[in-house]
Amino acid sequence: MTAVDDKTWLEVGTLDEIPRQGARVLKREGGDIAVFRTAADEVFALLNRCPHRGGPLSEGILYGRNIVCPLHNWCLDLASGEAKEPDEGCAPAYATRIEAGRVFVCTEPN
Amino acid sequence: MNKERLVLVGNGMAGMRTIEELLKLEPDLYEITVFGAEPHPNYNRILLSPVLSGEKTIDEIILNSRDWYAEHGITLHTGDPVEHIDRRKRLVRSRFGLEVPYDRLILATGSNPFIIPVPGADLPGVLGYRDIADVEAMIETARGFKRAIVIGGGLLGLEAAYGLQQQGMEVTVVHLLDTLMERQLDKPAAALLKASLEKRGLTFLMEAQTAAIQGRDRVESVRFADGSEIATDLVVMAVGIRPNMALAQSAGIHCERGIVVDDTMLTYDARIYAIGECVQHRGQCYGLVAPLFEQAKVCANHLAKLGYGRYQGSVTSTKLKVTGIDLFSAGQYQGGDGCEEILFQDPGAGIYKKLVIRENRLAGAVLYGDTIDGAWFFQLMREATDISAMREDLLFGQAHLGDSGHGGQTQAALMTDEMQVCDCNGVCKGEIVKAITSKGLFTLEDVKLHTKAAASCGSCTGLVEQILASTLGSDYSTPEAKPICTCTDYSHDQVRAAIREQHLTSLSDCFEKLDWRRPDGCHVCRPALNYYLISTWPAEAIDDSQSRFVNERVHANIQKDGTYSVIPRIFGGETSPAQLRAIAEAAEKYAVRSVKITGGQRIDLLGLTKEQLPHIWKDLTDAGFVSGHAYGKSMRTVKTCVGSQWCRFGVQDSTKMGIELEELTWGSWTPHKFKLAVSGCPRNCAEATIKDFGVVAIESGWELHIGGNGGVKVRATDVLCRVTTPEQVKEYCGAFMQLYREEARYLERTAPWVERVGLAYIKKRIVEDEIGRRAFYKRFLESQKQAQVDPWKERAAGAEAHEFTALKQVNG
């Protein structure tokens, strides 16, 4: 890990703390980040604001690698943050990695 | 491993829809080759009429561009029809000599226009009306010539006539019978149509049999059986289509009127499927697009080796695609033995409606001039709904079932492109029409997805369906039984039956046993499945919180800014100074931003953060409150008036009745929200007649009401029955709720459910069948044992703590 990495990668907790097919929130001043865990135990992170009307994505229903915003049912790709057609928009995505059950989020967007 | 080879003969809508459905299921199973006789990629044949009338261009009706074929790795040969099938070697040979081997073959050769075998039928200037080449020839003729005769006063003939007239020609329609569109219309409706088309400048020659087409180098006139003649420059034969089965016949595949297929769309050769207008299924040939799409789904299901799809025939409906004329017909519109007819005629306003009823079910309909309810009538037909309870109002349509709904337009044809259709999302007619044609949409679901019209409250659904129907014309109809979502082909009713019969108790069971396409479903099916599981097996099924909408998972209502509102239960709407004090103190302590009295007589505390919820619940539950479930597809509130305890008019104690009903029913999950009210006398101050279950006190006891709604579309309740004691009220209420819980589809309110299954059915189950009612009530009470555990108290005590705390907090 380089010095730059030390600044941007943040340990947020363990995989067990995030419900499967659910999300938890990393609260921070620059905008909360939703940290998602899929049914296959992959972890993704998006800015917790739907590009449509700012809904909290962490509260949506997660399936496959998709999250559906609870306010107006926009569906976003967890990896890219892109809205599914025909809707248009994108939530900033953050890199994640899991090491020995501990979850890290890169706090600089991709 | 080499992929299996799939060859499609016929690059039209039916065949390509099969390929599209197959790609959705199994994108990589086959190496696909497509042969088409026409030089174009797949286009929307049902939009040929707007191309002829100049309302659209050919480019606008292309469904799959050449790029699309390339992107999906499909080899496309256009302008090169297959002329030979070698079933022994399993290969096809095209006109230009291409030989392509197959493991599976689909025949989608469509149909040919029927050309009447009269002398001169082969003269230049005599056309069918079937493909782009015909339309191009007609438009070309209209540039240099003036007069046209269309033989055939059916759907296709009238559309051709109208289109030619729009191109500037003088058109005479010649029809063998005395009634236009006799396969879709009865005489009065046909007469209205004829008058309207005559007003637009078309000429009709009825009961005329064509004897010969005359001319030297090209058509010059038509002679009829009675010896009369009409001069013309163009003859369009639109007297019907014949399944194109020449190729199949030459390969020795069994054909009758069409290529004979079974319920899996397989021909007599187990490697060869046939689909679309070329097939004969259970003795029936179809010429409309909706049945073809249903067939495509089934065929794709088998090609993808899923092996459970079955095509069982289609009920079809018809619309004429002539701008400004609204016409709809479906089912057995002619009536007959054992049928009754309900008629409405207003020739001055150009409106005619006929409903044909058999054994209390709608068997057919003809609508002229006002077709807004076409889709609804069609649904009643397909669902075989018992209409005896709404018979008097049926003809006036869904919007008139006793009530008034949200206003808005009712006749799509009269609307300009700028007029708003969807008042929730601000979508105009023009946007919808444009999306349907430019994006190749065929279903209501497609339109909702692309335009958002009818995607919120749904009250404009009928209007959107009407626009869809008038844009797509004769070929639009809704599919037989709608699947829950794109994860499956099974409908709500089929899934629920499987859960019961196969004793499925978890989501993963359902996904596995019912061959779900996505391994963990989607946001549409998961909440539905979860509901079906817990309502069918209340003591065994695992309630999956991640498959519940946020409000039900968090037990509060999410607001537009991501905060939540909290509504404590106040049984029967009767409160006390102590309760109000506790609510006031909680509201101040947590700096609630708004305090609001709800429509259901409860108190709403708004603007709480998620983290605050367990804390305020602790204070409220300590003061004796339980959750108000104002956030769920669940029993919401029992609204009451004061009743005989105080009111000088009251005849029963409605408040006490309301409290007892709320104590009985709170906490129960239902397919959609469920509201009750109890009024103390027939003045009905608690508005019980717009509730899912309403109780109105009468001198001799209680009158029970069901299926009301005061929301999107106002619907007054139907009277279920009268009873005498509070115990009976509770038994009927619990039994009715349980019937609703067990049989209504997820997200179906009681109002549309009662309309769908019919009041007579509900009376039969709840009023007439005493043993059945008791059994329902018993199951309801059984289920309530699991349901009446206060979710707030559990969470205030620490349950699901992860839900209400941040994973981590950082600065900067």
List the keywords.
heterodimer, A: 110 residues, mainly beta, Rieske Iron-sulfur Protein, six-stranded antiparallel sheet, three-stranded antiparallel sheet, 9 strands, B: 812 residues, alpha/beta, FAD/NAD(P)-binding domain, 5 domains, five-stranded parallel sheet, 25 helices, 37 strands, 31% helix, FAD (chain B), NasD-like (chain B), NADP binding (chain B)
Quick structural gist:
Chain A is mainly beta and 110 residues long.
What report would you give on this structure?
The complex is a heterodimer of chains A (110) and B (812). Chain A has 110 residues and is mostly beta strands. Chain A is 5% helix and 42% strand. Chain A has 1 helix and 9 strands; from the N terminus they run αβββββββββ. A 6-stranded antiparallel sheet of chain A has the order 1-9-8-4-3-2. Chain A has a 3-stranded antiparallel sheet with strand order 5-6-7, with no helix packed on it. In chain A, a hairpin with a 5-residue loop joins β2 and β3. Chain A is globular. Chain B folds into 5 domains: 169 residues, FAD/NAD(P)-binding domain; 114 residues, FAD/NAD(P)-binding domain (3-Layer(bba) Sandwich); 57 residues, no CATH class; 84 residues, Sulfite Reductase Hemoprotein, domain 2 (Alpha-Beta Complex); 166 residues, Sulfite Reductase Hemoprotein, domain 1 (2-Layer Sandwich), CATH 3.30.413.10. Chain B starts with a strand and ends with a strand. About 1% of the residues of chain B have low confidence. Classes of the chains: A mainly beta (110), B alpha/beta (812). Chains A and B meet through β1, β2 and β5 of A and α17 and β37 of B.
